[in-house]
Amino acid sequence: MKIKRITIYSVAVIILMSVVSCREYVEIDTYGTRTLKKTNDYQYLVNNKGNFETTSILPILSSDDLDGKPSVSAVNQWNQQYLNAFLWSESFFGDDQQDIGWVNLYKHIYIANEILSGVMDSEDGSTSQKQVIAAEAKVHRAFAYFSLANQYAAIYNPSSASSQEGLPLLLTPDLFQNLNRVSLQRIYDQILDDLLTSLDALPSSSTLNHHPSKIAVYLLLSRVNLTMRNFEEAGKYADMALALNPQLLNLEDYVSEIYPQPLKDPEILLSKLTAGSITGPINPELIGIYDDKDLRLTYFLENNASLGGFKYMKPTKSGSFYAVVGLSTPEIYLNRAEVYARNNDATKVVEMLNAVRQKRFKASDYIALTVSDVQTDLLQSVINERRREFVGTDLRWYDMRRFTLDGSYFKTVVREYNGQTVSLEATSPRLVFPIEQKVLDFNPEIGQNPR
């Protein structure tokens, strides 16, 4: 049997596509390495949440969650990369800077590929244990490719996805591979295949939320199918997740308590974290769609005079530094609500929205929505609830991209900073992030995204 070694803790592990070329070996200290021989060695890889948990951060800067006219005091707390992403600049990174989101997500893929290439032939483990490990690796790989596709690849369009440019598709841990991009359709086909073939081996839910489970996979399948505009499939998988009785937190229960830390938050179905934190004022237009008594204004946001508006605070309310950007229960309801809205089923839209909203108000303040409250524009009602619930996460950027195919539901975003005014329209190539130049210097066949 072939025996492999992989660095567990350090990002000095050979990371395909990172600032160092995948065609170069990085010096690896023997400290912190394990021989991948026994099944428990692979189990160790999936148990170590640091291998798969930290993702990216720039989608939050690029979305319209943030105030388009930030104060100088707010921007002064950002680094240049953050400012460049906020302004959708031609390039985000300087000569000595690294795109940590790209690096992290391809690291997840590399480690998943290491697991998948060897776990089924490993020693001293049962077949079922090996299958679970492989299934978890597939889910992490699928999540990483979905995140990459919604940052660095074209917006998925069913009519043209087979000819749209996607990403380099790496399915083995080999360091010397063809890095030409495959079609966007091929990327999404792989994501779906990884998720669907992982289901049988996974438990319905996980005791520790950094481990994938059936309910997390159902939700991710719903998210992916929404993006692919396979709306009936998105609804089907949301229903399958709902059948497993996901838990919604009642925010009123935490009026005098600390909001649960990510590992103890029952709403989190698959924990993924941002690669850093952001302090910045929230878009006043977004604040305007909250009810004054909505507890999310207290638990997710905070009015901060020094920044000139509300800022995102949910991580610090739970004692965490980074925001959770993985999979969570509210998305199940709101994905289902969106599909109902697209089918013009106002009664079911109200049912799904109220399921979430009743947990976001004090019982004495809650007033259930009625059909008359949403019937003027069902889809916009769902979009507004998604914005309230997912503020400060990458989901808004992903939603903005896919709503470019829904006409007026994408609103042109305008930024003003230091005498400069920039706008982001539905047809703008800046809805796709640039590839870091150092990656292209080593791997020119990847090619830069249109700017």
Structural account:
The protein has 451 residues and is mostly helical. The protein has one domain (4-446): Serine Threonine Protein Phosphatase 5, Tetratricopeptide repeat. Helices cover 40% and strands 8% of the residues. The chain is built from 18 helices and ten strands. A hairpin with a 2-residue loop joins strand 9 and strand 10 (420-424). It starts with a strand and ends in a 9-residue tail after the last helix.
Q: Strand count, sense and closure of the main sheet?
A: 2 strands, antiparallel
Reported by name, the CATH topology is Serine Threonine Protein Phosphatase 5, Tetratricopeptide repeat
Class computed from helices, strands and strand pairing: mainly alpha
Unreliable stretches (pLDDT < 50, length at least 5) are 6-32
Please state the CA-atom Rg, rounded to the nearest Å: 22 Å
How confident is the prediction overall: mean pLDDT?
A: 91
How many domains would you count in the coordinates?
Answer: 1
Q: End-to-end span in angstroms? A: 47 Å
CATH architecture: Alpha Horseshoe
Going across the major beta sheet, what is the strand order? 1-2
* CATH class categorisation: Mainly Alpha
Helix content: 25-40%
Strand content: 5-15%
Helices, by number, come to 18
| Count of DSSP strands | 10
**So what's the overall shape?**
globular
User: Strand-and-helix sequence, N→C?
Assistant: EEHHHHHHEEHHHEHHEEHEHHHHHEEH
